[in-house]
Amino acid sequence: MAASKSSKLLRIEEVGRKIGKTAYAVRGMVSNNQIPKPIKIGTKSVAWPEHIIDEWIAEKMADAGYSPEQCEEMRNMSVEK
Fold it and tell me: 2.60.120, 1.10.443, 1.10.1660, 2.50.20: which CATH number matches 9-80?
């Protein structure tokens, strides 16, 4: 992984808070391929690298008509933390 990317892993509740959805809704989005697949971190645990979720949000922003600068700003938010 590139050093400039956040290595923080987000659990399902954190992803939900970040995108304004419940954990139940996030599970549904995963099942319907509407959000990137999580990685398995245990026998019953999954998580997402934070930079993957930030990039996905930036892509959605671009699809909604936000400027490339605004999308890049979103991608860089997890790096600045």
Answer: 1.10.1660
